Amino acid sequence: MKRLRVALLGFGVVGSGVYDMLQKPPYDTLVSIECIFVRHLFKDRGNVPRHLFTDRVDDVFKSNTIDVIIEAMGGLDPAKAMITRAIHDRIHVITANKEVVDHDFHAFVSHAKKQGVAFLFEASVVAGVPVISSLVELIDSDRITRIEGILNGATNDVLTHVHAGLTFSEAVQKARNQGFLEADPRDDFEGVDALRKIMIMARIAFGTEIDRKDVCRIGLKEITPSMTLFLKSRDWRLKQVAQAGSENGNTVISVEPMIVEDRSLQGSVEHENNVILFETEQRGRLVMIGKGAGKKTTAAAMVHDLMLIHRNRYYVVADGVEDRPSDNRTSLRTASYLLEVKDADAFSSITRTRHGHFIITRPIQRTVLEAHGKEIVFYARIHEQVRL
Ligand SMILES: NC(=O)c1ccc[n+]([C@@H]2O[C@H](COP(=O)([O-])OP(=O)(O)OC[C@H]3O[C@@H](n4cnc5c(N)ncnc54)[C@H](OP(=O)(O)O)[C@@H]3O)[C@@H](O)[C@H]2O)c1
Predict the structure, then answer these.
(1) What is the predicted pLDDT for the residue at 331?
(2) Which of 125, 327, 367, 382 is the most exposed place for a label (fewest CB within 10 A)?
(3) pLDDT at res. 384
(4) For ligand 1, mutation pick of 14, 18, 297, 302 (most atoms within 8 Å of CB)
């Protein structure tokens, strides 16, 4: 079988991990790395041959020299343009970049299908778990009704440390020291990263485009020590939970801080681990747990995609996607919330039970909370499985 000729775009944590893996058997005989595209051409790259590196886009696309690009740069620019050019030139694409996959999902999927090449993105969603290929296979013989997950390992690590007794800022520092948090962790805490992942899965599972303005994304605020004590007193935990469901033909998506029970599946997933639950019509509930990031983990996900191309058995995401705005119902849904408030008396009309400055609300629409904005120190939705 002919060796696959690969261009590696990016040589950071992930790109160098893919390179290392492809130097070893059996991949060294199946794949040859033809070039490595980077931003800083003169950076020290250890023992990797210098002639492989380039910072010129045209070097990557020299006529008929590449079969596959493996994109591990991140961001939209130049990733979007290079993926588009690769597909146009009938070059297979593998990417770990959830931002670009989320941003241009349908354009890439339909363009790749038209050109007869692969567009594979396993590493972009919970890299340690083969969630994308599983999802594509599942929907061949089943209907997915709901997806739920803890999809951001960095945030989950911080929340695990807070639960163990650290203050929020100590927990952030600890996660940063362990390499789980970026210098600027806003995408993690504000749910942007988890939202990208659940959006990618939802498009595959439900076959609809989702209007971003209708999606509910609530960031994680600093958690007070008194909130931590209150949660512990009830055997509850705070998690950042992503949910996607199909309700009456509408795709409903949310990422928000959520209270779960300590002993629940979600409550037991700690540190940088992720969990994904699929509820299906035929098979019932399916669960996958694993690490979402890391050099070796993410490289393995990309090499998995590469081997699918090598065997010419790669997954193709259905492009029967309706580009209709979804009538998102997240704001209409009712749920109970845990609130930490300044003046509990001001909330008596929505209170179910009161515990000092903490209130558990009756089932209410989120918009009711927005009306109380400034009075609320902290709030989190209470998961529907929590017994109140
Ligand atoms: N890290 C993980 O565990 C993980 C897990 C899952 C998915 N991902 C995704 O994988 C992608 C890469 O992540 P990473 O952690 O490997 O990033 P990284 O360590 O920052 O590496 C990025 C690489 O891309 C190159 N690059 C960036 N911008 C470029 C540009 N404009 N032109 C040319 N080259 C450019 C950089 O070149 P220089 O070396 O010259 O600076 C660097 O080699 C991201 O989309 C990320 O979300 C990462």
Answers:
(1) 55
(2) 367
(3) 93
(4) 14
Q: How close is the Cα of 379 to the center of ligand 1, in Å?
A: 35
Q: Are 340 and 377 within 8 A, CB to CB?
A: yes
Torsion over CA of 105, 107, 113 and 118, rounded to 10 degrees?
A: -50
DSSP letter for each residue of 124-168? GSSTTS-HHHHHHHHHHH--EEEEEEE--HHHHHHHHHHHTT--H
Find the residues whose C-beta lies inside 6 A of ligand 1: 10-15, 37-40, 43, 72-74, 78, 96-98, 123, 127, 293-294, 298
The 10 Å Cβ neighbour count of residue 208 is: 19
Residue nearest to atom 28 of ligand 1 (CA): 73
pLDDT per position as a tens digit, 64-99: 889 999 999 999 999 999 999 999 999 999 999 999
Please identify which residue in the block is written with the tokens 């580009």.
323
Q: Beta strand 334-335 with 284-291: parallel, antiparallel or unpaired?
A: unpaired
Contact 223, 238 (CB under 8 A): yes
Quick one: average pLDDT of 364-383? Answer: 88
Residue nearest (by alpha carbon) to ligand 1 atom 8: 96
Among 19, 37, 38, residue to substitute to test ligand 1 (most atoms within 8 Å of Cβ): 38
pLDDT mean over 200-217 = 85
List all residues 6 or more positions away from 248 whose beta carbon is below 8 Å from its beta carbon. Answer: none
Listed range (103-112, 129-138, 170-179) with the worst mean pLDDT: 170-179
Read off the pLDDT of each residue in 140-160 and give the average, rounded to a whole number: 95
| Residue 325, pLDDT score | 47
Sketch out the chain's domains with CATH numbers: 4-120 (3.40.50.720), 146-292 (3.30.360.10), 331-388 (no CATH)
